[in-house]
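Need Phosphoribosyltransferase's 3D structure for a figure. Predict it.
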Amino acid sequence: MTTEHEVLTYEMFGTAVREIAQQVVDSGYEPDLILSIARGGLGLGMGLGYALDVKNLSAVNVEFYTGVDERLDVPMMLPPTPDVVDLAGLRILIADDVADTGKTLEIVRAFCADHVAEARSAVIYEKPATVVLPDYVWRRTDRWIDFPWSADPPLVDRSGG
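Structure prediction for Phosphoribosyltransferase:
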C-alpha cells in the first residue's frame, strides 16, 4: 500500500452516489431494499435510496476497522441485525464505502444469501485485495482513503482510553 492518500470530498461523494446509482439503473437492477453497512455505508445507502427512489432502507452494523489500517482478525456483525424474515424474497442492494479486504461485504452477503431473491453490492471504492468484487464501483484505488466524515478526529472520545 502506498503512503499517499485518496481524498474524497463531500462534493465528490455526491458525484459518486449519482454515478453509482446510474450504474444500477443502466444494469436494469431494481432493488426492493438498500442494506447499508454501518457506519461507512450509511451515507451511500441514503443517497442511493433517493437516487433510485427506494424508500425501504435498512442497516447492519459490522465492526472490522479499529484504526488507520488496523482491523480485527474477522469482521463481527453487531446487534441489532435485520430480521431475515423481513428480507425474504427481496432484491437487495448492499451499500458500503469501501471493499478493502472484502470480508465485511462477504459476511453481509452470507447473512443474506439464503433469504433474499438476489443481492448485489455497491461501494464507492474497491481495493485490489478484496475477496468480493462489488457489482457497482465508483473508483478503484490501493491508497488509504480519507472520507470527509472521518477525516477529522471525533469531538469526543467514547473509547474509554
